[in-house]
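Researcher: Please translate sequence to structure tokens.
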Amino acid sequence: MFALLAALAALAAAAPPKTLPTNEGDVVLRNFSFADGESLPELKIHYTTLGAPHRNAAGEIDNAVMVLHGTGGTGQQFLRPQFADELYGAGEPLDIRKYWIILPDNIGHGKSSKPSDGLRMKFPKYDYVDMIEAQHRMLTEGLGVKHMRLIMGTSMGCMHSFMWGEMYPDFASALMPLACEPIEIAGLNRMWRQLVIDGIEKDPAWNGGNYVKQPQQGLRTAESILFIAGGAPLNLQKAYPTRAAAQAYVEQRVENGMTDLDANDMIYQFDSSRNYNPWPNLEKITAPMMWVNSADDFINPRNLDVPQKAVKRMKNAQFRLIPESAGTHGHGTHTWAKFWKADLSALLARTAK
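Model: Translation complete:
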């Protein structure tokens, strides 16, 4: 599935991921209740791991790190070179000889339970609270984790990181949100998401979610909006300096991006942020935090004054804005670890026991 942008993170990356020593599994959560009162007898959460759990003298896992993907993504996007090669190797910040890395597919994504499994638009209308609860149950009930060394996330995963800090203040030793704002989903950020949803639902072929074939015009509209939202002006100008090159690239990019999309899954994914708003309760976040945004991010514009106000309300939070350059990748800079891995190393160092 084309990520929100985790896939948008790969605007300039076509290199396939290296073969890494991963393990995959599923945690089946019985009788899962959603925030709106709906329920499923079974909710499957798929995950990928690297490394191995380490247990302290009390027998508890003490080296677990969870990395949360963006809207439309999967945990396996974090096996791509621009992320994995910078972080998981010997001596790197998330050296898998030292840490147990957990990469879940969130509700509605990847190999976890989602509308396209069969329920279509009858699937429960999950939101971010439901996703956090599923992550928590996956960790505690399925994987036996009572405390996380680190929770980090990109885009939607960034927003989840703020929510984790509020909902479970003592569960993680450190938080690292990448590419988001801790404010109500409103303004342009909600508008472009709504346009994605509307673009699909206004296509007659969508047929209320009961389509025989994927609604191509609706998906093309949605994918085109995603491309713009994830674009990096300086990077794309440098990479495609002529009209012919730019036109050929964007047409092929949108065409490729549509290949694996499911219309109903996409509607649910982009609507799941509908009630996101950690702003009123930021003071509840006490875990040390390193929050990083990028200056060329269309979705989280650099001239918002939110970070300056927010860090004053969180006990142990730091913020850094990555400067725009021809090498940054817009919203997708969150997945290019070379731009922020020094910040991650500093966070791990200041939270080490």
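Researcher: Any highlights?
Model: The chain has a mean pLDDT of 94.
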